[in-house]
Specification:
The mean pLDDT is 98. It contains 15 helices and 20 strands. The two termini are 30 Å apart. It folds into 2 domains: 157 residues, Leucine Aminopeptidase, subunit E, domain 1 (3-Layer(aba) Sandwich); 315 residues, Zn peptidases (Aminopeptidase), CATH 3.40.630. Helix 5 packs antiparallel against helix 9, helix 9 packs across helix 15 and helix 10 packs parallel to helix 14. Strands 7, 8, 9, 10, 11, 14, 15, 16 and 18 form a 9-stranded mixed sheet that branches. Strands 1-6-5-2-4-3 form a 6-stranded mixed sheet, covered by helices on one side. A 3-stranded mixed sheet has the order 12-13-17. The chain is an alpha/beta fold. The protein binds ligand BES, manganese (II) ion and zinc ion (ZN).
Length: 495
């Protein structure tokens, strides 16, 4: 989808659909007023009759509107009072859903009726571009009868003047890049485990790197991981025929900055639980256990597309977790790359076993800080549901920056503590630590496990078990937390 800005007379604007928001200012909004006058007071009459109203997602579509050059006029409720980020994003989603269903190729949109507390026009522009791009997502590869893709390809955002239009244009580009990253991440998540294997993820990463000169990819084989001493990661891949891969993507957006930010994404392409086999019901959803990896790929593609001036390295440990005669047993002791030994009490707590070696490996990049992203614990779904990702960190400033980016993007996080008392639950009688910490506080003890491997740098952990995909009739990947991560990185680049 292409985005640009438009400044000028609204009533003579030739477009297949003109969208105007009806918000707290009512008809006092200059854009709506201009249209109402050209239509000889029709808008005012429709408001009076109650056909145009304030309600979540309320819309009025008027075909061949008299007095306007536009083929259609869509009047869209932006709420009776000023919105917060979340309610505004919901409204923009509803608008994007409607626009991508109409048989139109182009639209011009005035958001002047919107009022969002504490946010200016560039923020609105970014979220509009993002929501329209996300609404165009279509997962089609396996249905014999193809669904029709959205026809909407060109969108103009109406601006009152040329003043301050530079940041609005940048915001449209960023929002569009985020949507493309989100959709890439969703597509990878939605692909089934028999297609999206560790090898598939590594070829995808190589192809992505091929599209950008400042994005490089290397892939470590099992042999190379063995030589590095990644006994913990390799213990997870012991039961499958699929070769494990460690994917490393280096984005160099600013040669003067040196130290990279490192993103580590859990890439379990299918998690059966291994010998500690999961129950059958809903097990198909464990194809989503690589959504951390997918979010790293989506984030890197977004910042490469936008040309963000920052250095970011993505590390993706990719494995399949299966039971077999060669699989790791409960009680087995393995040695991680850090030298710490681990008693594998449950082979279904495999995410931390691959992440710990990836986190040790991340130390080689002398990172300014490290963020790992993982569908790590069912306990996080119980604690936070699907509205916020879990955040745990050994650095308050980093945690606060992530919380703030979550608020800005609507892709929110909620912090949980990493106290020493929880860490004690990982005690093992036979190794340096156990890979599970008992029934209590499962999200925290999983993060404490990772914390044993992140002592040398500033680090944050995002548990996306509840946010990475939707279950039920709307089953599908969400692309979270790509919006959060790109927002966070964009804020870092601006400092
Ligand atoms: N991938 C799962 C976590 C998960 C489960 C995410 C359900 C989303 C929905 C992870 O590998 C896992 O199995 N974790 C176990 C840990 C336990 C054995 C300590 C869990 O959460 O049950
Ligand atoms: Mn598991
Ligand atoms: Zn898992």
């Amino acid at each position: 989808m292409e985005f640009n800005t438009f400044v000028g007379q609204l009533t003579t604007r030739k477009t297949e659909c003109f969208v105007v928001a009806y918000g707290p200012k009512g008809l006092d909004c200059p854009d709506l007023q201009q249209i109402d006058q050209a239509m000889e007071g029709l808008i005012a009459r429709l408001i009076k009759k109650g056909d145009i109203k304030y309600a979540d997602g309320a819309m009025q579509l008027i075909n061949e509107p008299k007095g306007l050059a536009a083929e259609r006029l869509l009047i869209f409720s932006a709420g009776k009072e000023a919105l917060n980020e979340q309610t505004c994003l919901n409204a923009l989603s509803a608008l994007a859903g409607q626009l991508t269903k109409l048989p139109i190729k182009s639209a011009s949109i005035s958001l002047d009726g919107f009022a969002v507390t504490g946010r200016e026009r560039p923020w609105l522009a970014q979220q509009l571009a993002r929501k329209l791009g996300e609404a165009a997502y279509l997962f089609n590869p396996f249905k014999s009868r193809e669904k029709k893709p959205a026809t909407l390809g060109k969108v103009s955002l109406v601006c009152p003047s040329r003043q301050g239009i530079g940041p609005v244009k940048q915001a449209l580009l960023l929002g569009s890049a985020i949507a493309n990253g989100v959709n890439r991440s969703r597509e990878l998540g939605d692909l089934p485990g028999n297609i999206c294997t560790p090898s598939y993820l590594s070829s995808h990463a190589r192809e992505l790197a091929g599209q950008y000169p400042n994005l490089d990819c290397k892939v470590l084989s099992e042999k190379q991981m063995e030589a590095l001493g990644m006994g913990s990661l390799l213990s997870v891949t012991a039961g499958t025929q699929q070769p494990a891969k460690m994917i490393v993507l280096e984005y160099k957006g600013d040669k003067t900055r040196g130290k990279p930010i490192v993103l580590v994404g859990k890439g379990v392409t299918f998690d059966s639980g291994g010998i500690s086999l999961k129950p059958g019901a809903g097990m198909d959803e464990m194809k989503y256990d690589m959504c951390g990896a997918a979010s790293v790929l989506g984030t890197l593609s977004a910042i490469a597309e936008y040309k963000l001036p920052l250095n970011v390295t993505g590390i993706i440990p990719a494995v399949e977790n299966m039971p077999s005669g060669t699989a790791t047993r409960p009680g087995d002791v393995v040695t991680s790359m850090s030298g710490q030994t681990i008693e594998v009490l449950n082979t279904d707590a495999e995410g931390r076993l691959i992440l710990c070696d990836a986190l040790t490996y991340a130390g080689r990049y002398k990172p300014s800080f490290v963020i790992d992203i993982a569908t790590l614990t069912g306990a996080c779904v119980m604690a936070l549901g699907s509205h916020a990702s879990g955040l745990l960190s050994n650095d308050d400033a980093l945690a606060q920056a992530l919380e703030s980016a979550g608020q800005t993007s609507g892709d929110r996080v909620w912090r949980l503590p990493l106290w020493n008392e929880y860490d004690k639950q990982l005690k093992s009688n036979f190794a340096d630590l156990a890979n599970i910490g008992g029934r209590e506080a499962g999200t925290i003890t999983a993060a404490c496990f990772l914390g044993r491997f992140t002592k040398n740098y500033r680090w944050a952990h995002l548990d996306i078990a509840g946010t990475a995909w939707n279950s039920g009739t709307n089953k599908g990947a969400t692309g979270r937390p790509v919006p959060l991560l790109v927002e966070f990185l964009a804020e870092q680049a601006s400092q």
